[in-house]
Amino acid sequence: MKLVVIGNGMVGHRLLEELSAAALPDLHITVLCEEPRPAYDRVQLSSFFSGKSAADLSLVAPGFFERSGITLRLNTRASAIDRARRQVTTANGDTLHYDKLVLATGSYPFVPPVPGSDRPDCFVYRTIEDLEALREAGRRARVGVVVGGGLLGLEAAKAVQDMGLVTHVVEFAPRLMAVQIDDGGGRLLRSKIEALGVTVHTQKNTVEIVDGDTARHKLRFADGTELETDLIVFSAGIRPRDELARACGLAVGPRGGIVIDNHCRTPDDDIYAIGECALWNGKIYGLVAPGYEMARVCAAHLAAGLAAERRATQPLPAFHGADMSTKLKLMGVEVASIGDALGTTPGAQVCLYSDERKQVYKKLVISADGKRLLGAVLVGDAGEYAALLQMMRSGSALPDRPELLILPASDGADKSALGVDAWPDTAPVCSCNNVAKGAVCAAVRAGATSIGAIKSATRAGTGCGGCVPLITQIMKAEMKKQGLSVNHHLCEHFAYSRQELYHLVRVGGIRDFATLLARHGKGLGCDVCKPVAASIFASCWNEFVLARDKAALQDTNDYFLANLQKDGTYSIVPRIAGGEITPEKLIKIGEVAKKYRLYTKITGGQRIDLFGARVDQLPLIWQELIDAGFESGHAYGKAVRTVKSCVGSTWCRYGVQDSVGMALKIEHRYKGLRAPHKLKLAVSGCARECAEAQSKDVGVIATEKGWNLYVCGNGGMKPRHAELLAGDLDEQTLIRYIDRFLMFYIRTADRLQRTSTWRDNLEGGLDYLKDVIVHDKLGIGAELEAEMAQVIGSYVCEWKKALEDPQTRKRFRSFVNGDGVDEHVVFVEERGQIRPATPAEKQARFKGIAVVNEPA
Amino acid sequence: MDGSNAPACWHDVCGLDDIWPDTGVCARIAGRQVAVFRLRDDRLFALDNYDPAADANVLSRGLVGNLGERLVVASPVYKHHYDLVTGACLDDPALAVRAYRVRLVDGRVQVAV
Ligand SMILES: Cc1cc2nc3c(=O)[nH]c(=O)nc-3n(C[C@H](O)[C@H](O)[C@H](O)COP(=O)(O)OP(=O)(O)OC[C@H]3O[C@@H](n4cnc5c(N)ncnc54)[C@H](O)[C@@H]3O)c2cc1C
Ligand code: FES
Fold it and tell me: NADH-rubredoxin oxidoreductase C-terminal domain: which residues (chain A) (predicted)?
């Protein structure tokens, strides 16, 4: 069967994913995509302004089209549908036959037909290209106006303000977000937004746009007033893209939208419509979740059609409409609208809590009989959103005093009715991916006990991420029910998590293991808690790791300051900060390697690893390296490893900043910093990102204006893109944020938890991290910086120190009672270098000599 | 252990101070590599230095401690735990290393091989 899909937007792409997951035989799919790139996350479009690239926003899993055999035609607009011939014509004149056709054409921004609205530097806000053009114009503008004070208009206003422009919002209605919230909520929202420096003009009807006197344009309003601006963004609503459907005679609504039934079928059995272009039961849904639901329904219907001969045993899923409740953060202000927010249901009663000092506004809309919740508005604090939404949807009975649901807890409110325990399994918890509470609980019962695991098992939380705190709550409640104590005890010796232990060490000023064990633990310790304690001592006090009382706690790598390899020998990695090295030093490494017959390999962190050194050789080798000006690279420690860099503006034609210089600064600042796991950093000199900073724990990317800071990325086994923590920072602020970020991670992460997993399990997610690091909401910024300063101030090269101390140096020997070497370490040559011999090779060599312990 | 019926003879290894508390050292005794451990309370233990799970002579470089009632060393390669008293491997019953008797005489550590 030939399926043609027109539009590769968010919903169209979800359809492809559903179909690909169903792995239907004999299905050939062609997708016509008008835009120059495949599907991307339009919901997160604004993050383009905070540094996300088009690639970051992509919704297409790597290799998706190749794997699923779907033909994608970019830059290809469908221009006509011939229903009789079942053909689609493209703008460049090709025709394609279809058996089934899906329209997923989305909508377009409505631009009011005001004279002058087509002047240059007038924009809309829908595609990446729109934003690129807007950003370009923003560079040469001083003032920006957004026409439209709805949800999208306010998002656009934030973008305009972030570009550093004086920002105005012009709204026709008497309040902001007129569709979603009431007058009281709108008033509060307005005052909050104005406090952020955006001027709001309501009840303004733009009649004309002409040349300005002080700026490029002048808007003239019906009431005779005027406003001058350099650029304009129109965000006055959206209209379904139903032009193809109209032209081929499919039914459309009076105000647009392709008419569909409960299976997303148009009156033509072979044509479906889904997403924002579709009109169901007289309604258009301008949100992505209902669109995703349509994609699911449509995919099931298509699949059933293919398998028509097999009798359908299950009823097909159908679309039953969707609720338009939303919760969002607009310019940092939480706003939520649930159900009948405006109270239009006959007889509806209102219960209101508003506090202008605390800047919160909360309203419940209650049924005439006082028994059920019909809707709600929350502005300033939307903490109760999920619970109220659930109450409204399930129609469950309201508690006796519903006002307590929205009163602050300190005023004696009983919020137990809001608790997740009281929710039925069918309660939706992640609207982006349509996941119910029951699915999350089932995943917990099947063994998913971290947010990361829940995400991969259920998809919940992988969309906008807004539901993660709620899912965490449900996960914990279910774990408790299952008797799975949320046990983070380090080991049998310490009934504390690493984070708690860190706190005990720091607050108690504990500097040695014996004291720690006596005060907070039991037994002798083990190979789990000892290195953790050593790492915490190092992070807190940065004393010499090989001091007599510390040495016994160290894993062999830290004990010998080198990396143990499988045959019992060690490898050595001198620090090559930023990957920059002089020819003299390069030659020195070569000489040392040659002299001690070491295997050499370039690492991914732009350094050189020397393999095959025996314990007794380590001090000799390091003496030579230190004399030549090298220092420890800490490759052996759970510590800051490398700061990778590209060559940057010094040499590169495209570089915009000196990335090598910055990498050196960062590496020398944090070198040797001990952490719960190893830390990798990188600095790229421009957006081309040659240093792959977005796969690092801390990634810095140069911009025209400064530096973008990315955090919590990972390469390796579980690749994870780093996320933008803050953009366009000057050097001082950049360093301050990295200080805070690293120390916060060191304080709070679990044992052997990389920043990426730590972040995935962080309640509140990226927003919370920003609050702590950038906005200093916990008020610990200065403390974190001071702790970091202490560690940095006490840095010494561990190898230098080890060589200077005869007691320590003495420990580097293979045998306590004599010299000699381990005869079990055998090398053979391969490609001009040594490598460990295989057991068979060793046997051959030892032929005639009794082998005491034969490997199995 | 298979050493029990062999005639054992005490060998001088090193001074007590040559082994830092809660660490091990490797000694060459009669052609064998023996890992000798000293706990914080100066109790001494000796095992083969060879870790059969890793096929490498590394046990003297492991971390010592306890798991429940048993005193153990964790091999630095794949973290198998060996009982300091018996040499049994806690993670894999098929594996074991030889355990030796150790004593302290006039500040000197001696091992019976
Ligand atoms: C800035 C912004 C913020 C948003 N925030 C949220 C939010 O927080 N929450 C939320 O739920 N929703 C939000 N939305 C709405 C959400 O993005 C849409 O609901 C969703 O994208 C709809 O998906 P769709 O596939 O129906 O349409 P689209 O994503 O618009 O995709 C339609 C695609 O079809 C293509 N197309 C159209 N006609 C043709 C043709 N003839 N031939 C070929 N291709 C064609 C278009 O170019 C487009 O690529 C936001 C939208 C924007 C713009
Ligand atoms: S609600 Fe958006 S990810 Fe769950």
Answer: 325-395
